[in-house]
Amino acid sequence: MNPIAKRIAAITSRVQQLQKEDFYFYLQSIEALNGARVTVKGRGEMLMFASYSYLDLIGHPKIDAAAKAAIDEFSSGTHGVRILAGTIRLHDELEEKIAAFKGTEAAIAFSSGYVTNLATVSSLVGRGDVVICDKLNHASIVDGCLMSRAKFVRFKHNDMADLEKRLAQARPEAGKLVIVDAVFSMDGDIINLPDVSRLSKKYGALLMVDEAHSLGVLGETGHGIEEHFGLENAVDIQMGTLSKTIPSVGGYIAADQDTITYLKHVARAFVFSAALPPAAVAAAKASFEVIEEEPERLAALQRNIMHFLSGLKARGFDTMQSETAIVPIVCGEDEKAWRMAKFAQDEGIFVLPVVPPAVPDGTSRLRANVTAAHSEEDIDYALDVFERAGQAVGVI
Ligand SMILES: *Cc1c(COP(=O)(O)O)cnc(C)c1O
Fold it and tell me: Where are the domains of the chain?
C-alpha cells in the first residue's frame, strides 16, 4: 500500500475501534449553550468541564453587542492582509487595548494563537540561533521552533538547573530565545517565572512566555503571570490567545514598539494572511474591558479552583502540581482514562481523556477545566461523579 494511504488507514481504524467500544468522545457537537450547561447532540444536557472559557465570557451581553455593532459598521470581512488594505480602526484599537492591558508599548494581533507562535518564533530566530524550550511547551511553540531552523533545545519541565545548563551550553555569539508556557496546558502547573527570567537575563537570552491559560486567570486582577509573581519587565515577548478566556479567535504578542514593528513587517503569517474579521476583533477588545470591569468573575473562578482541587485531593486523586483552572485527574493506563471518561460522560459531565503521545506513558488522565460559570453545587456534583468513576475503574 502507498505509505500515505497506509497512514490514513491506520488512523481511520483507530477511530473506528474507539467508536465501536463507545470510547470515542471527540468532535461532539454542541447544539445549545446555557452557562456551564451545554446540550450535546445525542446526549442531552451536560455539565461542561472541558471549556477554556475560564471567566465565563461566552455569551456576555457587552461582548456580543460589540461583535454585532462591528458587523453593522464594518460587515463580515476585510480587504485582505493587514499590511496592505486589511487594517480597520478596530484592529488598531484592539492592539492598543492589549498593550495597555499587558503593560507594554505595543501589540500585534494574528489570526490564531497557533499562528501567533508559529509566526513569531520563526521570525525571531533562524539558522545559527538557539531556541530553548520547556519540555512541556505547547505544540504551536514546538512547530514554530522547528520551522525556524534554529537549534532546538529542550530543558526538563520547570527544572531551573537544567535550563541554566542549556543556556550555558549555547555558543556565546548565537542569538538565544527562551520560551515557556505560563501555565502548562496538560498539567495545569505554573512556570517558575522569577528564575526563568533571571537566568534568561544572566545569559543574554530573550524571554517569550505563552499566556494561553494564564490571561484572565493568574494575578490578582487577571493580568497574567507577571502580576501573579509581582514582577515587571520580566518577560520580553508576551504571547496570548484570543480564543480561551477571551471568547473570540486570534492571538497576540505584546512587547516593545520595535519588536512589534519588526513582526508587522517580517512575520509571514501576518504579511501573507488576511486580517481578523471585524466581529472577532470587536469581541476581543470588549472582553479585555469586561475582565477589568467585573473582577467578581476572577474571584468566582479562584473559589471554584480551590473547591475542586481540594475536593479531588480529599478523595484521593492525583492532580499533579496543578494550581490553576486546568486540573489533571491522573488515571494511569489509557484504558482507565477511557473508562473514567465514559463513566463521567454517561453521568452528564462533559470531560475528556488525554492519552499519549499528548502526555507521557502511564500518566493518561482526565483533563478537567473549572470555570467561573460553575456553581458550588455543580462542582460538588462533578466531584461525586468522579469519586464513583474512580472507584468503579480502580483509580482511587
Ligand atoms: C490553545 C493554545 C495555543 C493556541 O491558541 P489558539 O488560539 O487556539 O490557536 C497556544 N498555546 C497554548 C499554550 C495553548 O494552550
Answer: 17-48+295-393, 61-293
Is 342 catalytic? The answer is no
Q: What's the 117 CA to ligand 1 centre distance in angstroms? A: 9
Our answer to whether residue 185 is catalytic in this structure is: yes
What SS3 string covers 283-320?
Answer: HHHHHHHHHHHCCHHHHHHHHHHHHHHHHHHHCCCCCC
Ligand 1 atom at minimal distance to the Cα of residue 52: 1
Are 187 and 321 in contact by the 8 Å Cβ rule? The answer is yes
Mark whether 51 is an active-site residue: no
pLDDT at 23 over 90: no
The residue whose CB lies within 8 Å of the most ligand 1 atoms, and thus the one to mutate among 116, 121, 136, 140, is 140
Would you say residue 177 has pLDDT above 90? yes
Number of Cβ atoms within 10 Å of the Cβ of 347: 16
Its pTM stands at 0.97
CATH class of 17-48+295-393: alpha beta
Q: Spot the catalytic one: 91, 213, 228, 285.
A: 213
For 272, counting Cβ atoms within 10 Å of its Cβ (0-12 exposed, 13-18 middle, 19+ buried), the class is exposed
pLDDT digits (tens, 9 = 90+) for 55-112: 999 999 999 999 999 999 999 999 999 999 999 999 999 999 999 999 999 999 999 9
Cα–Cα distance between 227 and 314 in angstroms, integer? Answer: 30
Q: Domain spanning 61-293 has what CATH number? A: 3.40.640.10
